[in-house]
């Protein structure tokens, strides 16, 4: 994802996908990440959460002793996210970056927006894809159904395996954002995520 960022993706046999951005040391190479991914896939693929014993976790740590910090985050993700009964999860990143924009120097506007971002059910409705619609959606200003974000723009893109949509990535920002750049970034992310998930679900990860 970047020089000091990676994304952990866990795919369940139900099609549920759990993912989380994480910071990694800058000296971690793609080869290191491939090695970590290979060991985790080899040890955990086909296992149920209930069948993952301490001895198996110890084996993983033994084989990947150099990468203990990353493993800690991966195991924490599996315990905290996957064990949760709730599959539709909202992940927020960079929320406070919007405070740097001149449109949001008004304290009342910021309070309303931050309050909205704390409401997972509302965010889920905002990100929900109508019908079987796939691809990129752009909503500018009043095109957004929620009044709280009608001074913002929302760009979303779905990611899927085959024809099955597994989730949505969204970027919320001021209406004067660089649309061409944002669309390019979010399109690239959704396509890469779709390809990665397809490989994992086919057992090629």
UniProtKB/TrEMBL annotation:
<dbReference type="GO" id="GO:0045892">
    <property type="term" value="P:negative regulation of DNA-templated transcription"/>
</dbReference>
<keyword id="KW-0678">Repressor</keyword>
<protein>
    <submittedName>
        <fullName>HrcA family transcriptional regulator</fullName>
    </submittedName>
</protein>
<dbReference type="InterPro" id="IPR002571">
    <property type="entry name" value="HrcA"/>
</dbReference>
<keyword id="KW-0805">Transcription regulation</keyword>
<dbReference type="InterPro" id="IPR029016">
    <property type="entry name" value="GAF-like_dom_sf"/>
</dbReference>
<dbReference type="InterPro" id="IPR021153">
    <property type="entry name" value="HrcA_C"/>
</dbReference>
<dbReference type="GO" id="GO:0003677">
    <property type="term" value="F:DNA binding"/>
</dbReference>
<dbReference type="Pfam" id="PF01628">
    <property type="entry name" value="HrcA"/>
</dbReference>
<keyword id="KW-0804">Transcription</keyword>
<feature type="domain" description="Heat-inducible transcription repressor HrcA C-terminal">
    <location>
        <begin position="3"/>
        <end position="183"/>
    </location>
</feature>
């Amino acid at each position: 994802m970047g020089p000091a960022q990676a994304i952990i993706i866990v795919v369940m046999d139900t099609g549920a996908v759990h993912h989380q951005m994480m910071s990694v040391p800058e000296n971690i190479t793609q080869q290191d990440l491939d090695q970590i991914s290979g060991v985790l896939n080899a040890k955990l693929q086909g296992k149920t959460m209930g069948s993952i014993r301490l001895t198996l976790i110890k084996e993983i740590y033994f084989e990947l002793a150099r990468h203990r910090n990353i493993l800690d985050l991966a195991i924490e993700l599996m315990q905290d996210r996957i064990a949760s009964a709730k599959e539709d999860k909202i992940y927020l990143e960079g929320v406070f970056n919007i405070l740097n924009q001149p449109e949001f120097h008004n304290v009342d506007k910021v309070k309303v927006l931050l309050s909205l971002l704390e409401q997972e059910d509302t965010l889920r409705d905002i990100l929900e894809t109508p019908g079987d619609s796939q691809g990129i959606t752009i909503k500018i200003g009043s095109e957004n159904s929620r009044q709280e974000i009608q001074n913002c723009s929302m760009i979303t893109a779905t990611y899927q395996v085959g024809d099955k949509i597994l989730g949505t990535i969204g970027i919320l920002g001021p209406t004067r954002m660089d649309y061409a750049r944002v669309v390019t970034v979010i399109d690239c992310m959704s396509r890469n995520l779709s390809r990665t998930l397809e490989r994992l679900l086919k057992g090629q990860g």
